Amino acid sequence: MFQFSTFKKKDNSFKVYSSIQSVADIFDEQMLSYSKSIAIRYDNGKTYENLNFEAYRQNIKAMIQFLVKQECEQEVIATLCKNRPEWDMASMATFYTGNIIFPLDTKTNDTELKHLLTLNPPKYLLTPRAQLNRVRSLIAELKLETVIILANSYEVFEDIGYKEPTLEDGEFSTQSIIDQCDDNVMVVSSPLLKKNDTILGHYPTSGTTSLPKVVQITHGNIVSEVNEAVDVINLRSNEEVLNIGPYTHIATLVEFLMTKTRGFTVTYFTREPDEDEVLEDEIKKLKKLGIRIKALMAVPKFWIYVLKELLEEMKDKPVLRNLYNYLISIEKNANLHDIGTLDKAKLTAMRTLLRNKLGGYFSYGVSSSMKLDGALVEIFGKLGITVIDIYGATEACGIIARNKLNDVKAGSCGKIIKPLQYRLANMTTLPNLKKNVGELQIKGDTIMHSYLGMDKNAHLDEDGYYSTGDLCWLDDEGYLYIVGRQKELTQWDDGSYIDPQHLSNIMVRSIFIKDALVTRLKPEDDFLSVYVYPDYKRLQKDKEYKEDIKAGLSSNDAMRKRIEEAIDYAQSIVDITPQLSKKTIYILPKALERTPTHKIKFLFELERLHLADEI
C-alpha cells in the first residue's frame, strides 16, 4: 500500500497537455495547470453551477485520502448514479489509488443489477439518495459486505424529490470525506500504475441478448485509448462540451479522461433530451448563463430526435417544403442532388434555426455506441453541423474506428485506430450488399485484459486476435463500414441480414413514435412485425390528427394512419428482403428497456411482446 507524501509540486503554471503516460498525470499535472478553468457544470434542478479544476481536484484528493486510510488497493469501487461531481471524485480517486471502478447505470433493472453485484461484489458503492433504499435492499438481499458512500456534496437534478437521509452505521458520505481532508498533506499515486496490466476498470457489456458480462480494463488500455482519442474534440478557451451520455459506458469514460487531459469544460446533461421541450429549455438556461456549447457527445438516438424535430418544423412551413423534400431525398435515394438548385436564403435560415436550437454556437458532435445512418450525417452536414461517427466496444476500451473532424465519410465509422491491428475473417457475400463482408478481428494495446472470471487469453484466438462479433467491410481507402453485430442480426431466408436496432432507429424518425421494435415473430413469417410506443402528446397536439378525430375517425384509426405512414417511410429507405407488416400493428404499453447506450434489451423485451395491444 502506498503512503501519503508531504512533497508539494512547485510547478503549477498553465500548460497545454495532449497526452498522458499514466492516469495519475491528470491529477498530478493537468489539473494543477488548469486550476482556475472550469472543469464541469452540473444541473442543480434550476440552473447550472460549476466547479473549477482547483475545487474539482480538491474533492478527488479527499477521496484519495479516504481510500488510502481504508487501505484499499485493487478493491472494487462501484457507482450507481448519474453524471455528477461526486462520480468524478470517486472515479479519479479510484484510478489514482490503483483500485477498480465498477460503474452501474441507474436504469439497470434489478435482475441485471443482482447478477452484476453477485458476479462482482464491490467493497464500496457510491449512490445518491434517489437510489439509496434500492441499494440498501439489494445489499441485504444478496448478503453483501458492501459499504455505502452517499453522494451528498452537491444538490443535482437526480436528487430532487428525495429528502436527505440519515446514514446507518458503517455508511459514509462524500461530504464527510471532503470535510476530513487534510489540505497540508499531498498524496502520491499507487505504484501499481507503473504496470500496464494493472486492472483499473470493470465495465459491464451492453447485455442486449444475454445478461451482461464484466470486462476487465487495464491501466495500459486506458492510457492508449486516451492518447488516441485526445484530438476527437478541439475547443477554444471560451467553448465547451455538452455531455448527454452516462459515464457508465466505456466510450464516455474515454471522453471523461480526454476532456480532463485537455482542460475542457464539460456540462453534464442528465435529463431525458427526447422528452417534450426538455432539450430546448435546458439549452436556453445554458445560453442565458453565457455558456457556449461548441461540441456535443451523444448516441444516435439523440441525433435522430434533433433531426426529426427540425424536419417536422420544416414540413409544417410551406416556404420550407422544397428544402424538406430535398433533405428527405438524401435518405430515400441514398445520394445528393445539386444543392445549387436550392434557395440559399432558406438553407441559411434552417442552419441558423438548428444552431439556435443547440445554443447558437454548436458546430459539431460525436456519435458513438451504434452505427449512425450515413444519410443523417449528410443531412446534418448540409445544415452546417458535422457529426463524427465513432465505432467501439467495451472489450476494446472504447474506440475501434473513428472519423475525424475534417475527415468524415458518411455511412462509415472512419478508419481503424493506429494502436490496433485488424483483419476480416469468415468472408461472405450478402445478397443485399455488393461487398464481401467478414467478422472484424482486432488486437493491440487497447484490447481488454479479460472477462471477469475467465483466463486472461480466453477471449483471444491463437494469433492473439479478439473477435468483435461485428460484420463489416472496408473500402479501398481503408474506411470501415458496419453491417451489424451478428448476435443481434436476423438472418433472412435468402441469406441477407436484418438489423432490428437500425430498423428501430428508422421507425422512431416519425414524430408520432417514441419507441419501436421490429421482429420476426414466427420462423414461418415472410414479413416483419412492427411494435411501437406512440408519442401520445404529439398525436394530441397534431392539427391533422385532431381534424381526423373531428371527422369521425376513432383515436386508434387516426393513430394507425400515422404509424402506417412511418412504416411506409421506413420501408422506402431500408434495403431489406421482407416487408414491414401493416396488417397487424402492435402498440407497446411503455417505452422499451434500453442499455445506457440506448440499444434495445432484446433479452427482456422479446419476452414482453404479449403485453402489446393490436390495432
How would you concisely characterize the structure shown here?
The protein has 615 residues and is an alpha/beta fold. The protein is 33% helix and 23% strand.
Characterise this structure.
It is a single chain. It is built from 18 helices and 29 strands. The protein has 615 residues and is α/β, with parallel strands linked by helices. The protein has a nine-stranded mixed beta sheet, sandwiched between helices. The chain has a five-stranded parallel beta sheet with strand order 5-4-6-7-8. Helix 7 crosses helix 8. It is globular and about 75 Å long.
Total DSSP E strands: 29
Strand order in the largest sheet: 3-2-13-12-14-15-16-17-18
Which percent bin holds the helix content? 25-40%
Mean pLDDT: 91
Backbone CA Rg = 25 Å
Name a few traits of the molecule:
615 residues; alpha/beta; 5-stranded parallel β-sheet; 18 helices; 29 strands; disordered N terminus
Note the topology.
Elements: E1 4-5, H1 24-33, E2 38-43, E3 48-52, H2 53-69, E4 76-80, H3 85-96, E5 100-104, H4 110-119, E6 124-127, H5 129-142, E7 147-150, E8 172-173, H6 174-179, E9 186-187, E10 199-204, E11 214-218, H7 219-229, E12 240-243, H8 250-262, E13 266-268, H9 278-288, E14 293-298, H10 300-315, H11 321-333, H12 344-357, E15 364-367, H13 374-382, E16 386-393, E17 398-402, E18 415-416, E19 420-429, E20 436-444, E21 450-451, E22 466-474, E23 480-485, E24 490-491, E25 497-498, H14 500-507, E26 513-519, E27 527-534, H15 536-541, H16 543-550, H17 555-573, E28 579-587, H18 602-605, E29 613-614
Helix pairs in contact: 1-8, 2-3, 7-8, 11-13
